[in-house]
Amino acid sequence: MEDPRPDGPTAHTAPPARRVPLGALELLEAVDAHGSLSGAARSLGLAQPSVSTGLRRLERQTGLTLVARSASGTRLTDAGAAVLHRGRDVLAASDALEQEVQALRTASGARVRVAASLSIAEYLVPGWLAARPAGAAVVDLEVANSRDVVDAVLHGRADLGFVEGPDVPDGLHARAVGDDELVIVVAPGHPWARRQRPVTAAELAAAPLAVREAGSGTRAVLERALAAAGHPVTGSPAQLGSTSAVKAVVRGGSAAAVLSRLTVADEIARGDLRRVPVEGVDLRRTLRVVWARSRRPSPAARELAEHVLRSTAPG
Q1: How much is the pTM?
Q2: Which of 25, 161, 199, 229 has its CA 20 to 30 A from that of 170?
Q3: Category of 135 on φ-ψ map: left (φ > 0), alpha (ψ -120 to 50) or beta
């Protein structure tokens, strides 16, 4: 049967060859809100060059000059303001779509895939989850080192990640969820347990150490801190795949370890391990929640992230 419509059953307006990505609109919105590339970068958890590159890519795609840079900051041009005005409608529509999807997921039981580094998964995540309201989305938790957590989030195997390493790749948004500190621990019979003065960076770098495997945030922070102090690790560290294994080696008496204070608080309180003071090495670190820039988190994932951020906010 012939279709009575003039252009037949498939008539429609052809979409543009390339749609403006949501991430580019978020960059434009952040520049407008903060008035500078550096401010936009901080708000999005990106490096400033990544913001500059994203804006240049958007200008090439649209064929428009969207931002004007000056010594006093960065502002949107008239064309940029016009694009952002319509772009905010697009972002709002995307949010509305996510809310509709979330409503459908809730009806069938929403789930959030979370990957977390070992220290965070063991010592912080249980408390965060226990404090969530009834009816919150189910969380599927994968425990891995920080490098593998980042990989899982970047490649879509996890909706959110919690990491403790010193670096966050440009492909991820990041927000701080807390601070932590690494501490040196030894067995009660270790020579350092009786020291009256702090261990120096040179002594720590040359000592027999039990450390986590490559890719661990704890190990990355230690190596970065010692290198910054001018004394990269020179000993022959025992590399182990878990904090429990590191502590077991330390209890053997011959090796020291540098671990999160979260993971050794009980052993220090009982006297099973002794904390050794250190000077000239900055072992503080920031714990972060991360999510992919290329995908807007689902409402359930955003709800979980916002709950954690509220739980860890100062005061």
Answers
A1: 0.63
A2: 229
A3: left
The full length of the chain comes to 315
What is the reported pLDDT for 103?
64
Q: Where in the chain is the domain with CATH 1.10.10.10?
A: 22-104
Q: Is the domain 22-104 a CATH 1.10.10.10 member?
A: yes
Q: What is the arithmetic mean of pLDDT over 163-184?
A: 89
CA distances in angstroms from 186 to 100, 244, 248, 256, 305, listed in the order given: 54, 14, 11, 5, 36
Domain with CATH 3.40.190.290 in the chain: 179-285
- Tracing tokens 């952040």 back to the chain, one arrives at 30
Q: Are 99 and 107 in contact (CB under 8 A)?
A: no
Give the residue among 197, 212, 205, 189 at the shortest CA–CA distance from 260.
Answer: 212
Asked whether the predicted pLDDT for residue 175 surpasses 90, the reply is yes
Q: Are 233 and 223 in contact (CB under 8 A)?
A: yes
